[in-house]
Design goal:
By secondary structure, the protein is of the alpha+beta class. The protein is built from 9 helices and 15 strands. It has a 7-stranded antiparallel sheet, with helices on one face. It has a 3-stranded antiparallel sheet with strand order 1-9-10, with no helix packed on it.
Length: about 325
Amino acid sequence: MLYLKLNKYHKSPLSPKGGFYKFPLWVIGGFLFLSLQLSAQKRFEFTHPQMGTIFRVVVYATDSTLAREATKKAFVRLDELNLSLSDYREDSEVNTICRTAGSGQYIKVSADLWNILQESVKAARLSAGNFDVTIGPLTQLWRRMKRQKQLPTSTQISEAKAKIGIKKIVFNKDNQSIMLETKGMRLDFGGIGKGFAEDEMMKILKANGIKSAMIEAGGNIVISNSPAESTDGWEIIINKEKYFLKNCGVSTSGDAYQFVEIEGKKYAHILDPKTGIGHTEPHQVSIIAKDGTISDWLSTALYLMPIESGKKLAKKLKAKTIR
């Protein structure tokens, strides 16, 4: 579980022998200017529903107008990404592409869809297929299973798995177009989309003068510089332990809240591309990585991977794993 609150503690420099440091006037002036800047920063919080959850943004700014306008632009960016990546919206870019699957057509895609697909391909290769955005056909089966409270048949699972595989996406770099080779393919960015969106939103906030911010959405957190109250970072509690973090992404994948219970057995909502169904043994994994995109997909992948393989992958990506 992830929780976030502000660190209330400050650290003060002390002289070696209990006396006073002697600083040039320009250094003292610099300290005073920085102190005034920090004291002028105020905390503002905004929320926006999107991608099946609530995006919460906390920013520090000198005034409410700056905070509101910067965050408004970040939410506009979020809405743009949802229109491109949502598999719930029939008019989304990704669903439009999926309707051409198996036609042999290359379809030119937006920069956003192209970029997240490039990240998704890397993730699939690094995770040995445990993370795979082509899992959409299985996602559809899971949603139906959830509604009907009935497990899909082995035939249904086999048919869905036949439409899955990152190699079934063919890229044409010359004109930024893609082709989905197999009819019935569906892309599902549920394991990477929120982290990707948070990274893009953070770029907007920084470009609009916000130096300290936190974006949280459905188990994913992206944070920039420390809040005004702290030099240590944002205080985040993971599995009852405190972490002080800045300029990183944090994600948790687990089955504590999202599962289907059928005949007394709980099936996790995170589907295994190899078996075609969710795990039945409850567990969770949290990841601290350099950005939200990596922490998002990596937590999904490590949830499914053997522990030792997951540790090696996290180490390769310089990410911290918490179970």
